[in-house]
Amino acid sequence: MNLLQTHQQGLNYEHNQTNKSIHETNSSAITYTNEDIFIKQQKLKEEAKVALVLGAKMARMQIGLNGNGNKSLTIDLLKEMNIGQLQVIINELYCRIEINNDKLVNLLIERDSLSMEQDSILVDIEDLTKRLEEHGATLSKQ
C-alpha cells in the first residue's frame, strides 16, 4: 500500500467519522450545515499541510541528514524509520542526485572546452615548430 492510498483511507475514515458525528448530533437537535463541514474540512487540510511540512523537518533532524552526508544510514536505522522519514531521505537523495548531475554536466562541458583549447595549443606549437625549422633551414643556406 502506498502513501497515497494510506492518505485516502485516512480521508475516507475521517469522512465516515464526520458523517457518524453528524447523525449523532442530529438526534440531539444540533445540526451542521454543509458550510460548517466544509470549513472544518479546510481547517483539517491546513493542519495536515503544516504537519507534513513540520514532519519533514522533524524527520530530517531526527535522522541527522545534513549537506555533508556524514551520517551513514544502516539497514537497522532504516528499518526503524517511518514512511515520512524514509520519504525525506528519498527526497534528499533525489536532490543530491540532481545537484551531482548538474555538476557532472558542467565538468564535462569544461573538460571538452579544455580539450579543444589543448588541441588548439598543440596545433599552434606544431605550426611554430615548422616555421622555426623552415627559418633555421633558410638561415643555414645563407
What order do the helices and strands come in, and which of them pair?
Layout: H1 3-27, H2 34-63, H3 75-80, H4 83-141
Helix pairs in contact: 2-4
Which key features would you list for this structure?
mainly alpha, SCHIP_1, 85% helix, 4 helices, 142 residues
Helix fraction, binned, reads: over 70%
Low-confidence stretches: none
Helices and strands, in order, run as: HHHH
Topology, number of strands: 0
Please give the count of helices: 4
Give the overall shape, derived from the CA principal axes: rod-shaped
| Structural class determined from secondary elements | mainly alpha
**End-to-end span in angstroms?**
92 Å
DSSP strand (E) fraction? under 5%
What do the pLDDT scores average to? 77
Write down the Rg: 33 Å
Largest β-sheet summary: none
InterPro entries: SCHIP_1, SCHIP_1_C
Protein name: Schwannomin interacting protein 1 C-terminal domain-containing protein
Keywords: Coiled coil
GO biological process, one term: positive regulation of hippo signaling
Notes on the protein architecture:
This protein has four helices and no strands. By secondary structure, the chain is an all-alpha fold. Among the domains are: 36-71; 80-141. The protein is rod-shaped, with a radius of gyration of 33 Å.
Put the structure in a nutshell.
By secondary structure, the protein is an all-alpha fold. It is built from four helices and no strands. 85% of the residues lie in helices and 0% in strands.
